[in-house]
Amino acid sequence: MSASISTLPNTPEPAIPESDILPLSGRIGVEIRNVRLAGDLPQPLFDEIHRLLLKHKALFFRDQHHLDDAAQEAFGARFGGLVPHPTIGALAGTSSVLELDTRRTGERDSGQGAGRADQWHTDVTFVDAYPKISVLRGVVIPAAGGDTVWSNTAAVYERLPEPLRQLADSLWATHSNAYDYAAVRPHATDDDRRQFDRNFTKTVFETDHPVVRVHPETGERSLVLGNFVQRFVGLNKGDSQKLYDLFQSHITAPENTVRWRWRAGDVAVWDNRSTQHYAVNDYGDAHRVVRRVTVDGEVPVSVDGRTSVTRNRFDKPADRAA
Ligand SMILES: O=C(O)CCC(=O)C(=O)O
Ligand SMILES: [Fe+2]
Fold first, then answer.
1. Which of 93, 100, 142, 222 could crosslink 146 through cysteines, CB 3.0-4.6 Å?
2. Ligand 1 lined by 168 (C-beta under 6 Å)
3. In angstroms, what CA-CA distances link 305 with 145, 170, 268?
């Protein structure tokens, strides 16, 4: 006699069925279907989203048109306390939203050039306890272009040749928001430069992070680099640049990345402790607006148990900040 339903072991329904989890590449990123993001998601569903985030590093949800700033913040706050950007602050009327709008410079400039984050980076690594998770919502998306690419820096670390892994384990890097804007933005106007000084770097931070951090939730090791790195501790600029390029070349290798083609209403969530990302700047003058909330992070811990330190934090002198 075949087992009747009532005698089958009691396996609970998964909070997200397998068929709604779509891998987007071999090493990072899944799209999750049929979930309506909100601050009041049932706990089992939220726990599953959190578990998938730790596993896949980046999650993507289409058609979240119901989300406004407050609802995006409410969903983000399920992961922990939200933090505004340390120098730009929060969009008016929100507690922590950062807007990247290609038509708005000045007050709203992210410091990455008129809303174009086209440098490989991890968010806000110039402070010690930088955000652990970012939640980004597509608001205005160009008809073509404007994709974002993420890299899995834990997968990169795991696949480094052993001698490079050992080197990375032993290195520390100084990160700062006061990077060489003119070098990164050769076409920037004097006004752009002044806005950068006035907003993004009105307070300058210099923080030393281990190049390899141990993830506080998974125990995985990942690389902590990206465009806020100034130099490696104990190395000069020239040697630092070569080593940086070497490690970054592994991070930006297509095999370690996922690329998301945005539509308005999409939401991307990434584990900022084990990823870098890059907003592709290929849409000319087309309008693009995205809004981000970030969740307060932990101070990174190195493979030998030491923690990151902010070495320097100072306000720009009045003549630069004016
Ligand atoms: O514009 C994007 O797609 C990404 C912007 C970015 O770097 C961020 O929101 O942290
Ligand atoms: Fe970013």
1. 142
2. no
3. 42, 12, 31
Cβ contacts of 86 within 8 Å, gap of 6 or more: 124, 126, 127, 203, 205
Q: Ligand 1 centroid vs 117 CA: distance in angstroms?
A: 6
Phi, psi of 174 (to 5 degrees): -95, 125
Nearest CA to ligand 1 atom 4: 279
Residues 87/313, Cβ–Cβ less than 8 Å: no
- 187 an active-site residue? no
- For residue 100, the ligand 1 atom closest to its alpha carbon is 1
The answer to whether residue 50 is catalytic is no
Over the stretch 29-84, which tens digit does the pLDDT of each residue have? Answer: 999 999 999 999 999 999 999 999 999 999 999 999 999 999 999 999 999 999 99
Q: Identify the H or E element spanning 188.
A: none
Q: Which of 68, 67, 73, 77 is nearest to 46 (CA)?
A: 77
Instruction: Enumerate residues 6+ apart whose C-beta is below 8 A from 290.
Output: 99, 100, 115, 136, 137, 138, 139, 262
